[in-house]
Specification:
By secondary structure, the chain is of the alpha+beta class. It has twelve helices and 16 strands. Helix 1 runs antiparallel to helix 6, helix 2 packs across helix 3 and helix 9 packs across helix 10. The two termini are about 70 Å apart.
Length: about 575
Amino acid sequence: MSFRTRLFFGILAGVFLPLGALAYGVRQEMERRLTAEYEQRVNSMTEVIETDLLREGATVASRLNGLISDLSSDNRFRLGALQGEPASRRYLLDYAGSAMKLSGLSMLQIQDSAGRILSSGHFRNEFDRSQPQLPALLAKAGGTIALVRTRTPEAPLLALARVDSFRVGGRRFSVVGGVEAGTRVGRLARNGDLSVDLFYPDQPRVPSSHARILREVYLPYVNLLSGSGAALDSVRLVVTQSLGTLQALRRSIDRWLLIAVALTLAAALALAAWLSSQVSRPLRDLARKTSEIDLDRLDQSFETERQDEIGALSRLLGGMTERLRTSSARLREAERRAAVGDLARQVNHDVKNGLAPIRNVLRHFSQVARQEPGGLAAVFEERKGTLESSVEYLETLARNYARLSPTVERAPCNVNALVEQVLRNTSVDGTVLQTNLSQAMPHAIGDSLMIRRVLENLVGNAVDSLAGRPGGGTVAVTTAIAGGVGAEQKVRITVADTGPGMSRKQLDQAFDDFYTTKAEGTGLGLSIVRRLILDLNGSLHVETEPGAGTSFVVELPAVSGGRAG
């Protein structure tokens, strides 16, 4: 993921996380406050309901007390209820109906202690009918108001009723009275999303998917219309909250939240795109300029007028480029001097190798001139070829160094002849030189001058490694065919000595430039050998062990069908 993309998403996250937290917090806070408000309203409504029920009960009780007071002093009631006088019976039959209308009650019934109805407000002819359940059930309710379902001539009646009693002539009488509760209890209250509903024992609770029950108030209940007989039960006044308003509020909040998110998204996308482009464009320019910098091209300009971090980075890169430019100039000068030094050392090394045979011949001439002056001409003729070969070698070196980049002249080379020529021109100083040359070996493809330089360096290093050893040592040069049937044939040259060998550390450094273990060595011999063999498309392998000598194995491409002469 690119820096621009990370910056883009970072800005979006920085905008949406606080916005989401704000939306969540607003929604939770509104719901919490609404819940607290509903709870307060529910508590108030419950108190109102309970107060209304107590007030209705007190009203009924007050009216019953007034009726009882009248009945206790009513002689006609005494005559009809206690003595059963026929003339007073008509008075009892009409008494409850008249008293119910005068007292504002919706239900009135007077019974004796045996449960016989003496007077009924709705049914005049119920006189002497036994119905002891109603006073007993109302008395069991604890003297509080109860909800009674009874019948009237027109329709069933739901009344808030209670029972009271009085004594006349030593006998106890019960008075049951109540007010109509259909309009009071059926739907006691509705205030916005809050409502109070009456639920009978056989009715289910309000489904939770449409409303939420907040509070329940229980009221004693007697159903005189039940076919299984009257019994004391209870009804529930349920305070419920409609979820419609809350859900509508949530939908409204969600809608405005989506609108805010959409507007914020558009603004955040525009802002993020603008900011990321403002940051990434100069960074891309810096990256492009930096990618074009190398040691051959340090002319990039990082000048800028920006004063921010990108400007500081640009000026830092400009300073770095300037330092690289200065360091590159110094490096080129150092490389030039090093190259001149390397060239001088290589020329010195190669010229010494070419002068060594000439020096040996001249020493031989001097020795013959002192000891046998008459044989000098014959010795000259004998060694004339060595002088000419060495001079030709030096001339070829001069031509190659004049071009500074010697070319490889690939041609069939007689490796055995080159080995014999090199060994013939090598000063041994007590070292035994041995050869084991394969006469059936093909010619090698390469440059005879390069192969001769390789042999001179390897043989010279082998002889030098034996210098100063008691009894001298042996240097053996072997040629053979490498490669089998079906593989490309190669010419193998092995130069082995019985010298001290090399340690692992010495072997790792042997081919490095200017590494030498000789007091007067240049450290270029083996590095030149390696470069020459690579130029000839050959390979070099070293086998050595401390105290057991060293073997250099060179393999060169062979000419198919060529033979050594």
